[in-house]
Amino acid sequence: MATNRTFTMLKPDAVEKGHIGAILEKISASGFRIVAMKLTQMTTKDAQAFYAIHSERPFFADLVEYMTRGPIVAAVLEKDNAVEDFRTLIGATNPADAAEGTIRKMFAESISENAVHGSDSDENAAIESAFHFSGREMF
Ligand code: RTP
Ligand code: MG
């Protein structure tokens, strides 16, 4: 995986509220090219594995329940400095702390239901992209 790619999920709350189009529009307008994308639903095992780093945190069970309760949009995005620039575009984990104009400020409800995921490193972007997509599904 090149270092100019990141992985994102539009989380179940964003899909439930009909925000897929608006969020993808904002992502595209911010200069990210979609190189892979699908609507999918994670199983409990999938979510436990994807968020394994948080398995000892008090919110882990709620996080797994939330991330599996409905479909998500999984996507791989390409742009110079993709990981850092996408984290800036989505804003702080808690939308109350997120900057004006960020995706979480615009579309998220709370620290636990915060509309969108963004990889936090190039290494995790590659791992998370491979978790959801085969090489033939990335363009
Ligand atoms: P993400 O991994 O989804 O992009 O979010 P993040 O880096 O901004 O935040 P992280 O610390 O990795 O937390 C992962 C997700 O767990 C939920 N969370 N709930 N109730 C809480 O205190 C709490 N803290 C985190 C959120 O869905 C968060 O995005
Ligand atoms: Mg994270």
From TrEMBL:
It comes from Mariniflexile fucanivorans. HAMAP family: NDP_kinase. This is Nucleoside diphosphate kinase. The active site is at residue 117. Belongs to the NDK family. It is found in: Cytoplasm. One of its GO terms (molecular function) is nucleoside diphosphate kinase activity. Major role in the synthesis of nucleoside triphosphates other than ATP. The ATP gamma phosphate is transferred to the NDP beta phosphate via a ping-pong mechanism, using a phosphorylated active-site intermediate.
